[in-house]
Amino acid sequence: GESVGLHLPTLSVQEGDNSIINCAYSNSASDYFIWYKQESGKGPQFIIDIRSNMDKRQGQRVTVLLNKTVKHLSLQIAATQPGDSAVYFCAENRNSGAGSYQLTFGKGTKLSVIP
Amino acid sequence: DTGVSQDPRHKITKRGQNVTFRCDPISEHNRLYWYRQTLGQGPEFLTYFQNEAQLEKSRLLSDRFSAERPKGSFSTLEIQRTEQGDSAMYLCASSGRETQYFGPGTRLLVL
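Predict the joint structure of the above. Result:
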């Protein structure tokens, strides 16, 4: 079936190191992808997005890479800080015909930053 | 704070009771979405409004669930005859175009 998933459920990194969180998707028709950060007890927080006509996009300390050939998405966080500790979700945004752009989420990767 | 707000933040109810949640989207956003999230999982789409029109419903939205957005601004999600399996975080999001911004969620516990 069509799904968005993540390779690793947990990731521990040392403070100051770079983090890479991976995501695989299976719907080749998806044209828009979003990374969200979710802290315990809170709603998902938008981090960065990328359209399918791009292969890289950079934000503040974050970079998203999209490889459409292998249907792979990654989120790179530079100089990881304790405040980056959270669960990270990639989401696939489909224009469903009704124009709803409903999001399909993976299960998430829990990032733990070691001080 | 001009983000998405949800009320209440927490709700404990007994099985069989009805509950209603409210979502206030970002004011200029015409699209509003409801999702459900269970522990350890990503959010799952429930339904979507464009202005006051409910344009899409997931098969997860059983006939015990109803959502409204009467004036195209705030929305309510009602669950009738709650079951223990309804225990989850109910998330609301809004968007102007594709990018959805989420509220803090309402955590429901059905005893």
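Chain B touches chain A through 29 residues (CB under 8 Å).
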